[in-house]
Specification:
The chain has helices at about 10-20, 35-45, 55-60, 75-85, 100-115, 125-135, 170-190, 280-290, 300-315; strands at about 1-5, 25-30, 50, 65-70, 90, 115-120, 145-150, 195-200, 205-215, 220-225, 235-240, 245-250, 255-260, 265-270. By secondary structure, it is an alpha/beta fold. It binds NADP nicotinamide-adenine-dinucleotide phosphate (NAP). The site of NADP nicotinamide-adenine-dinucleotide phosphate has 21 residues, from helix 1.
């Protein structure tokens, strides 16, 4: 039985905790947040035994085997390092850190501490996305030619909100743009050869919207767009020379359609009642039980190359954070 603790009992942590009872061989036993009242309420709501508002008490609990890090992005690298030094395995929310340099430093520490660590790219573990990858692998759309994906919504414009706040690593690219980019990298099993990107910046100095075009090896093209100030048509399209795949709301996909000259086939996953975070958590538990230090679906190499791609896009648009160092 692996016992988990949550560091950062906010919005996503609540959804993760709600899905957690479906994970086999694991139990959520603790949560930490700075505000005592809110972490107590979080633990009551999710039937979690230990509510901590002192970080040392949380990391000092020897019963916690795995820490799920769900703070705003700018804190990820620092918190994961603390967890590793306390002897915990880690699942850390996306983006794994603010940049590739921080990402590499954390993986080096994980190797030294001999602990499992993975970026929470939950989308790649969803049954619908696994089906989409198998369609592409089987050549059902012929040769891969292009990837088009959007993730955009009208968010809260309060300058203090984490996505508007540069101190917390705010902006569209790192929060939602990471999904179109990770899908294009994963489908191509590669990073882009060239990148073009343009952004609209908010008054707080983060990218409210970022539109990206890339070329991958073999002439495969990608159009990848993100916004926290516009409702985009949030569908992933994968084009081949013999058909296409459409995945609405692809980052949390429960349905995908394959369209070829032979007709149309729709895959519907049986997960309408859930968020789908249990699949990544189960994968983490299974990998730890097997003595692995990383997961093959979201390897350390994949997270580093994803972060390097995001660094290159940030260079194109001129987005720098104080916490980049
Ligand atoms: N996988 C997904 O589908 C998904 C969805 C949404 C978000 N996320 C990721 O999850 C992370 C958290 O997002 P969220 O929407 O859950 O954020 P949120 O609701 O603002 O929660 C953040 C949590 O971190 C704690 N925290 C600790 N130190 C903090 C600090 N210095 N400043 C602010 N908060 C601090 C906050 O509690 P206290 O203030 O009490 O400490 C709060 O519980 C982000 O990195 C995001 O990319 C993933």
């Amino acid at each position: 039985m692996l016992r988990w603790g949550i560091y950062g009992a906010g919005k996503i942590a609540g959804e993760f905790a709600a899905d957690f009872p479906k994970v086999k061989g694991a139990k959520l036993i603790a949560a930490y947040a700075r505000k005592e009242d809110s972490v107590k309420l979080f633990c009551e709501t999710n039937e979690i035994e230990h509510a901590y508002h002192k970080e040392d008490d949380f990391f000092g609990n020897p019963d916690i085997d795995v820490v799920y890090v769900s703070t705003p992005h700018a804190l990820h690298a620092e918190v994961v390092k603390k967890a590793l030094k306390a002897g915990k395995h880690v699942l850390c929310e996306k983006p794994f850190a603010l940049n590739a340099k921080q990402t590499k430093e954390v993986f080096e520490l994980a190797a030294k501490e001999n602990r499992f660590v993975m970026e929470a790219l939950w989308t790649l573990f969803l049954p619908t996305i696994q089906k989409v990858f198998s369609w592409v692998e089987e050549g059902r759309i012929g040769e891969l030619r292009a990837v088009e994906a959007n993730f955009g919504f009208v968010g809260n414009q309060d300058p203090e909100w984490r996505l508007m706040n540069p101190k917390l690593g705010g902006g569209a690219l790192l929060d939602v743009g990471i999904y179109p980019v990770l899908m294009a990298n994963a489908l191509n099993k590669s990073i882009p050869l060239s990148i073009n990107a343009h952004s609209h910046f908010t008054q707080t100095g983060v990218d409210g919207s970022t539109f990206i075009t890339c070329e991958y090896p073999n002439g495969i093209m990608a159009s990848l767009n993100a916004s926290v100030e516009m409702d985009l048509v949030n569908t992933l399209f994968i084009y081949g020379d013999q058909g296409r795949i459409e995945v609405p709301s692809f980052w949390m996909a429960d349905e995908a359609t394959l369209i070829t000259a032979d007709g149309t086939q729709t895959f519907v996953a049986a997960m309408q009642e859930q968020h789908g975070y249990e699949y990544e958590a189960q994968a983490v538990c299974d990998a730890i039980e097997n003595g692995e230090s990383a997961h093959k679906i979201v390897s350390h190499e994949f997270s580093i190359s994803l972060m390097e791609t995001l660094d290159r896009i940030r260079q194109e648009i001129g987005l720098v954070y104080d916490a980049d160092e």
